[in-house]
Design goal:
The protein has about 110 residues and is mostly helical. The protein has one domain. The chain is about 65% helix and about 0% strand. It is elongated and about 95 Å long. The relative contact order is 0.03. The model has no long low-confidence stretch (mean pLDDT about 80).
């Protein structure tokens, strides 16, 4: 007997607030003091600049390029696999017909 489930009530959570608009975010940033904790966290993590370094941009570009190449290779492989599957299905049907033919000859 489960005594804990008798009086459980479903908790209704409040809805999420609307996301701020870009203008509101920029306004908040412009009003923030230079010693705001957000800026100190950014300095500690090394992300004080909003634009990434050239080497980071290049690394991301190469990463995206590699992804696109791999995606293209996967699509080509998928096409080859579909063709091979069709060939195997045709061969299986032909084999079934031959087996039926041989069985008919033996009877």
């Amino acid at each position: 007997m489960n005594l804990g489930s008798k009086s459980k009530k479903r908790v209704v959570l409040p809805s999420r607030p609307e996301l701020p608009a870009v203008d509101q975010i920029l306004e908040d940033l412009s009003k923030a003091a230079p010693d705001d904790p957000v800026f100190s966290i950014l300095e500690e993590t090394g992300h004080e600049s909003s634009s990434p370094a050239d080497s980071e941009v290049e690394r991301r570009f190469q990463q995206c390029r590699r992804y696109l190449e791999l995606n293209e290779q996967l699509q080509e492989a998928q096409g080859r696999l579909l063709q091979q599957r069709e060939e195997l299905q045709a061969a299986g049907q032909q084999l079934d017909r031959k087996v039926d033919e041989v069985k008919g000859q033996l009877l």
